[in-house]
Amino acid sequence: MTDYGHDLMFGTFVTPNAGAVDLAVTADRAGLDLVTFQDHPYQPAFLDTWTLMAYAAARTERIRISGNVLNLPLRPPAVLARAAASLDVLSGGRIELGLGAGAFPDGVAAMGGRKLTPAQGIAALSEAIPIIRDLWNTGTRERVDHRGEFYQVSGAKRGPAPAHDIGIWIGAYKPKMLALTGRLGDGWLPSLSYLPNGAASLTDLNARIDEAATDAGREPSSVRRLLNLMDGAEPEQLADLALTYGISGFILATDDAATTERLAAEIAPAVRDLVKRERG
Amino acid sequence: MSTEQKVREAETAPGPVVLTDEDGGLDPWTAAVWLAARNDNLRITLPGAPAAVSSDMADKAMDTLTALAGPRVSTGDNPSRFDDLPASLVKFEPGDPGYRGRSSTYMRGGRPALILRPRTPDEVAEALAFARRHPELQLGLRSGGHGISGRSTNNGGLIIDVGAMNDIEMLGNGLVRVGPGATWKQVAAFLDKYDLALGSGDYGGVGVGGLATAGGIGFLSREQGLTIDRLRAVELVLADGTQVRASAEENQDLFWAVRGAGANFGVATAFEFEAEEVTEVGWAQFVLVSHDVAESLKAYGDVAREAPRDTTVFWLTGPPRQGQSVIQMYGMVDSGDADTIIERLTPFATTALLAQQQVVVARYADVMAQAGDVGPEGHHGRGEPVARSGFLPELTDAFARDVAELLRSGQVFFFQLRHMGGAIADVPAHATALAHRTPEFSVTAIGADRRGMDEVWDRLMAKHFDGLYLSFETDQRPERLHDAFPAATLARLRELKRRYDPTTLFRDNFAIVEES
């Protein structure tokens, strides 16, 4: 039994095409906490996810917005840090940064990004996160310098500062990525259907994150556990995920307005009730 | 004023806003997208292209905003590379909104330095004057962006995109006037209101200009002739900028040349076709399974050869899987009568084991309308297509055996026969620049590997063919010009090329060059 005690968040995972803005507005009006978009720019039918996020943020009022997850090899950290902080400022603190090491290396290369091996992708991500955090930190006037294997930043001015502490949520499955998530992440954002044994895998994967967090001198609870649900969601299932596996962010894949509304109006309150009852 | 204050003011401002890039300030691209979403009428100037890892990513961002908000954002300091661009012409350079969707084609990736999009024949002439001033830029012509043989995109060159010239107008007596940028799907939908139709190819998304200057082997060709056989007049802008009209009455040489080799002679700005009455048609799609693809192909050939002119069925397969070939047939019977349709199609459906069938009575326009619309993002082909073509005089046993071997080679993932004969063969060889009038089939194969494909094609297929359909041939070896045009046709084309395009301005699609 693991419960990291976070407030529960409910959101949707929306295909980044022409209908996505309307679905974000639907989710916002319905009262969901979060709307997220996958990031596969090499897929011609998809819109550019960052542009879509900024557009959706401007068309919504309360909902938080994140990539799910953004493709780091196509989104250099200095560009991403500035863009995310800017949108966080404009949206009144509604942006979270779902980030991944980048799948589909051939697709990445076709769009002019660097083709990295999985190991290189992890190394690049562990360079990128400190750069992003540095650029967001305007508490000092010191310029940002970073001489890494994958990214070089020389004498960059910091800022803008985000309007709130933007969470960096990492899409991770394998041991090295899970360790990175425990060490550097504010959140973990996998998809249930990609877990080897479904929800049962979460115990072991959580433990790896917890261990890496502890090793880095952090509380395991400093990493929020979110989960993409690609095949529907029912209240008892989600409550069990929250109470048994410590999941506090439920992101349902849907491009359907009625399903979005039902998540907000029926499923989320039911799960909150069940969890509240158990947590006491 | 901070960049944030500026954005806040612009959220409700009536007038345009010019965003700047300040150290430590807001990201101009994110601010521009935010503003475009918040203020529906605001025009926004950016200090530069969106910050991105690559120009492809920056273009994708710009195109996404154009798709979401319309073309309201421009980059102020993205000056044209060219200082002699005609001011009136619509242009797209890398980084311009809309560039990315027009830089690639249906099957080919490209990154031209400049795309000009003329809206009138005068603007075509201006674009051609620009092309003459810039011989260093490879010139390509683009209508619908489906060209396989024609380089309707390139890397670093100039594309004249006639997609905006897409008017369709009824002239009466079955005559329809069509711009080169219309698609065949649009033409079909327009003619449908008059119970008329005009054969094109097999895909409604294809543009008029490229097809109507090359041939057009489609579902009505056996009854109506090729698309070029329905052409009654064409208006062109020649290499020197002259605007001419060609028909059986005037500029007869050009009229002859445009029908089969049009890409060599000018930019067509309008076509006048004679359509024919077509109301309901039978439309069939079959999936068959065969353990002996050579035998099934032969059986198809026997049926197709005997079919009446109202019946046209194309044959398509790919590499066999576990010794089994999946064959798709799709075609049309120009009749709305169910019994006639079934009678015509049954022999085709029994050439192998029928696995799926769909036969409907439909309008010709409905069949064309199955093609997807090209959205604001345009085409996104990548790389270079590897396609070969041949006109097959007779589908023999030896051909069928060699096709089976070709398919087993794994080099070909798409292998198609288009059913010819009928009215196509009524036109004498010398009447148009497309001289190959008597094949039974037009054969097209698409592969992935240039050398592997050419090796199997040259070894197994070439001996069966007499000529090729130039639109589907991507082999650049000089012999192909002789396959496209028999000697007498080529001699006449060369003479006309010397007269109408002496500097070989038009050379991106089967360039008619002198004997080397």
Automatic annotation (TrEMBL), chain A:
Transmembrane segments: none
Domain of life: Bacteria
Domain Luciferase-like residue range list: 19-228
UniProt xrefs under PANTHER family: CONSERVED HYPOTHETICAL ALANINE AND PROLINE-RICH PROTEIN, PTHR43244
Protein name according to UniProt: LLM class flavin-dependent oxidoreductase
Native organism: Paractinoplanes ovalisporus
Automatic annotation (TrEMBL), chain B:
PROSITE patterns the record matches: FAD_PCMH, OX2_COVAL_FAD
Keyword annotations from UniProtKB, A to Z: FAD, Flavoprotein, Oxidoreductase
Name the UniProt record assigns to this protein: FAD-binding oxidoreductase
Pfam families referenced in this protein's UniProt entry, alphabetically: FAD_binding_4
Residue ranges annotated for the FAD-binding PCMH-type domain, each copy included: 107-278
PANTHER family xref list: BINDING OXIDOREDUCTASE, PUTATIVE (AFU_ORTHOLOGUE AFUA_1G17690)-RELATED (PTHR42973), FAD-BINDING PCMH-TYPE DOMAIN-CONTAINING PROTEIN (PTHR42973:SF39)
Annotated family: Belongs to the oxygen-dependent FAD-linked oxidoreductase family.
Gene3D superfamilies linked: 3.30.465.10, 3.40.462.20, Uridine Diphospho-n-acetylenolpyruvylglucosamine Reductase, domain 2
Region named Disordered: 1-22
Compositional bias annotation for Basic and acidic residues: 1-11
Cofactor: FAD
